[in-house]
Design brief:
By secondary structure, the protein is of the alpha/beta class. It has helices at residues 11-15, 23-37, 45-58, 61-71, 129-133, 149-167, 234-243, 290-302, 312-320; strands at 106-108, 114-118, 136-137, 174-183, 186-197, 200-208, 213-216, 221-223, 226-228, 248-256, 266-269, 309-311. Helix content is 31%, strand content 21%. A 5-stranded mixed beta sheet has the order 3-4-5-6-10, sandwiched between helices. The chain has a 4-stranded mixed beta sheet with strand order 9-8-7-11, with no helix packed on it. Strands 1-2-12 form a 3-stranded mixed beta sheet. Strand 4 and strand 5 form a beta hairpin. It is globular. 41% of the residues are buried.
Amino acid sequence: MTPSDLGGRSAYEVLGVSFDADTATLKAAWRRAARRTHPDYGGNAEEFRLVSRAWELVGDPSSRHHYDRRFGTTGSASGPASGPAPGSASGPTTGSSPRPRHAAGRSPAGSAGTVTYLPPLDDDTALDLARSSQQVHGAPRKRGILPAGNRLVRESRTIRVLQNLVLSSLPASRLVTGIHLTFGRMSSGAIDHVVLCGDRLAVIGSMQVPDGVYRWDGSELWRGDRRVAPPSLAPAMVALQRAFPDCTVGGFVLVLGPDDNPHAPVIQQERTRSAPDADATFLTEPPANALQFGRDLKMFLGTGSMAGTVDRRLLARLLGAMY
């Protein structure tokens, strides 16, 4: 079974839950999705088949563990509960897309505010309702045949940081994981994560380092006399800026320690650059631990003139570039 057998989605996306959802959340999501898509209840037979197959893959701990190891997700039946995002109970359907109960163009977002959709949700030509409303798209996946366990774990941790510190505060933000974009002769390479919020795009890179105190010289991180080069975001940022000329593109690097302490590692900033690097000039803010990274990214995304808007046309283009 490959991801393409589920319409290009992961089993978790088909069921409408986060990859780290606990067993109770996963089971409840399956029941909702099965009832919604069952042909006897007016659902779509093909979508019901996908829901059933997704449940076979992750419905019990043994098969879920095998699926996670094979396809690079890190879901765990004992992981923290993480329910589906509003409207994420399904992926694209054929002929049975639910209609919004709220006024066209807006969706209630609880205490976080109101989300405006452009074009309005009653316009079916841009993107379906489910994916328009879903905050998290994609999951860490293998690239080719070589093992990449460390990268998959790092990407999974990055998604959790983004969900907890950024997406929860910006209801119009949309996270897309796993993009490869070609624009003319420019190739973005594999982009781990992109966050869209209004007319701003943030390219997210990450790195995992031993705990300790680091200093940023404007080009590289130093731990004592050891240099640690951050990932280069330049190709991705240039390709995205050319492909989305009406957007403001920013680059951010999350530095993760060995555990989930958001305050670690400690990164000190130096005023002078000892080893200039052209790639470093693409970064909107210096590499930062989870807490500072969340603050920097929210400031960049949240201060845009369209921070409360989901541009469904831009989101559709990003989803179309997923590998």
